[in-house]
Every structure is written in C-alpha cells, then in structure tokens.
Amino acid sequence: MSNAKNLPDSSGGNVEYGAGDRAPSAPRKRVALFAGAYNHIADGVALTLNNLVDYLERRDVPVRVFAPTVEDPALDHAGTLVPVPSVPFPGRSEYRCSLGLTPSVRKELEAFDPTLIQVSTPDFLGLRALHFGHSADIPVAGTYHTHFASYLRYYNLGLLEPVVWGYLRHFYRQCDHVYVPTTAMMDILQEHGIEDGLRLWQRGIDVDQFNPTHRCTSWRRAHGIKEDEIVVAFVSRLVWEKGLDTYAEVIERLERQDVSHRSLIVGDGPAREELEARLPNTIFTGFLRGEELSRAYASSDVFLFPSDTETFGKVTLEAMASGCPTVCADAAGSRDLVQEGTTGFLCPPEDVDTLTDRVRRLVLDPSRRRTMGSAAFERAQDFDRDKILAQVVRHYDELLSSQDPVETEGAPSDSAVRTSEGGR
pTM of the predicted model, to two decimals? Predict the structure, then answer.
C-alpha cells in the first residue's frame, strides 16, 4: 500500500509526495531564519515560526534562527537560536528592536552556510539579512506575518500609512519569494504594488489538540461557569489593535439587552487591566497553553473575534476546530476561513450593531449554534498543520531549483554553486 498522499499546492492543484513530503532530488536546504519575535514573547508570529522550525527539523532540514531574546523568555523555543543584540521597543517594551548583524552574529551565519534565507520581519535585522543574502548570492524568502499598515490608526498614526507601504514595497520587492497567509492578504499586497514572487503559506493547527472532545464540565465549573450558560469567548494577546474595544462594546450591549451569556477572555497583555475594569462580569484566564487552552476553546460556545488587523486568524481556526461557530470582522485574516452563514458570520469591521446581532442569534438558538459549530469543525480539518507546512517546503524547493546550477539533497556542501539569477 502506497504512503503517497496528495497535498494542495498554492495554486489549488495537487502535488504527490511520499511520506516525508519531500520531492525527488529535492535541492539541498539549509535555512537561516531571521525573526523579530521567536521566544521572548508568546504571540502568533513566534508560535508560527516555532512550529515551522520544529517541522523542518523533524524532516532533517538544518535550521538556524537569528532573533532577539531575553533572560526569561516566554517560550521554550524549537531548534537552535542565535541571540541577536536588541533593545526594548519604545512604548511597547514586550517587543524588541534588533541591532542588526553584529560581527559575532554574522560569523555564526557564515559558519552555518545557509542555502536559503527566510526573513519574517521587515525590521533592521531583516534588512541586513536581505542584504547579506544578495551579497552572497543566496535566495531570500520574505514572510508577511503582520499587517503593519492596519495598526497605525490604533496609535493615531494613520497619516503615515503611505510611508509604511512605501517601505514595505522597498523591502518585499527585493525578496525572491514572499509568503502570504491568505488569498485576501495577497490581494491587498498586489493592490499596493507588491506583486512578484507571492506564494501562499496558510497557517495550520494540530487538529487533535483543538477538538470538541476537550470540552470539560469541570473546567467550566472551576471558572464559575454554570452548566447551562452560553460562553462567548475571545482568545488573543490583549492589545487594543486586536479589536478589544469592539469586543467590549458587544458584550456590554448583550448585557444591556439581558441576553444571558458568559464572557470569557483568554490571553494577557497591556490592555488587560483596563479591560477588566470595563468588563467586571467577564472571566479572565490569562495566557493559556496546551491542554488548558484546548479545554478553554472546547468549553466555549461562541467565538467572537472582531480584529481587523490579522493576516491570518489562527485563533479563529483553533476555535472552529474546537466546534465553535465564529463571529468575526470581515477582514483579510478571517475571510479565507469563515464561510458566511455556514461556519459563522463575517461582519463589517467595528460594526457593533451587526456583530451584536450575530452573537445574539447564536446565543439564543441552540440548533443554529450546533449546526454551525459542526460545520466549523469540518472546515478546520482542511488545515492540518503538517500538511500546511509541507507547502513551505515545496516553496523552498521551487525557489532553490530556480537557482542555476542546483545542489541536491545528499550532495557535498562544497559542490554548491549559486548564482544571482532567480528573479531577485
């Protein structure tokens, strides 16, 4: 019996690979990954990159991660991390500003001898990595994790949006590939002049970890949730650009309308104290991981996520896999996931009236809630993490194969000859 399986490629077709998800005569891969966040903060970007590194190492692809770190990091990171000197970001000390490729970091990079450079953040470190790749004739893949332009209005900096897009064009046009998490986000980049080398890299999840079977009556009871209470949940870092103000307005309206429910917020961050004061009846669990996070999702009944700044709504996908119907802002991060009227509802961003109405419908209609929750679960099965990460390896192979000549897996490293051809 064959172990081969068909995996969707970025254009919607199928590519057949064996159990290792490696194409025959695959190019030799040694990946240098540059990140603005990897282990010092537990945000979506850091978790995604750790999953990628874990996947690559399980498939014997050597990886080195170059990123800022701190004395007491939030995550036990995957793979080998080369610390990059950094300073706290002004006004947001949980983030770090890297100081670029110092001589010692550059020495580590050269000793690793990468065949491919992947840059996850268009910051100073990313720019230096990009220039290093060009000077050494190493192909560079950029990833678009964070929709920076959409954040500006939360800091009253909307006038800077043209400047930000100008810089993003300058950065990503120098990359051979640009990995984008959704087709909706790909459309946005193309509209702003970032058109060449775009490839789809969706986000996947562990469909066993996020599953309705983790629903737990004792977990609900321990958090003061009655057996018949309908839980409206939100999961994310608690920063205002995640749509927290809109979430709070919806919960406040439901309370004024006497719609019986229980609000649950999973996560932590600088907005927590103000949010706790505003929503005194809401359960705040703080940051959860592992089984506790699985139980929190599966023990909820409706997932409300009004953020319009996401490039990919991974928390939305985790909620769907846990059997929750979702009510989300109709934005790039949710549009590829939520099937309107089937797995949940997409609402105009910041439209509190519509968001409240859709949540109320689900809270008050058990049959609709069950039907949509079941459909959400089925939809989420298309996003198995390892199958999704196989997309990235195929993109690597495509990019490395475009370099002429190509060194294949198993060939001695000193036989590699790289040229600057390949669309850079």
Answer: 0.79
Contact 53, 79 (CB under 8 A): yes
Residue 183: partners with Cβ closer than 8 Å, 6 or more residues away: 200, 336
Contact (CB, 8 A) for 329 and 304: no
H/E element, 406:
none
What is the rounded CA–CA span in Å between residue 249 and residue 247?
Answer: 5
Residue-wise pLDDT for 153-199, tens only, equals: 767 788 888 999 999 999 999 999 999 998 988 999 999 999 999 99
List, in order, residues 6 or more apart from 357 with CB less than 8 Å away.
none
**Sign of the dihedral defined by the CA atoms of residues 7, 10, 13, 15, in that order:** negative
Tens digits of per-residue pLDDT, 292-326?
Answer: 999 999 999 999 999 988 878 899 999 999 999 99
CATH of domain 5-204+385-415: 3.40.50.2000
148-162: burial string, b at 16+ Cβ within 10 Å, e else: bbbbbeeeeeeeebe
DSSP 219-283: HHHHTT--TTPPEEEEES---GGGTHHHHHHHHHHHHHTT---EEEEEB-STTHHHHHHH-TTSE
Rg (CA), the chain: 22
Spell out the domain ranges in the chain.
5-204+385-415, 212-382
Q: Tell me if domain 5-204+385-415 and domain 212-382 are identical in fold.
A: yes
Report whether CATH 3.40.50.300 matches the domain 212-382: no
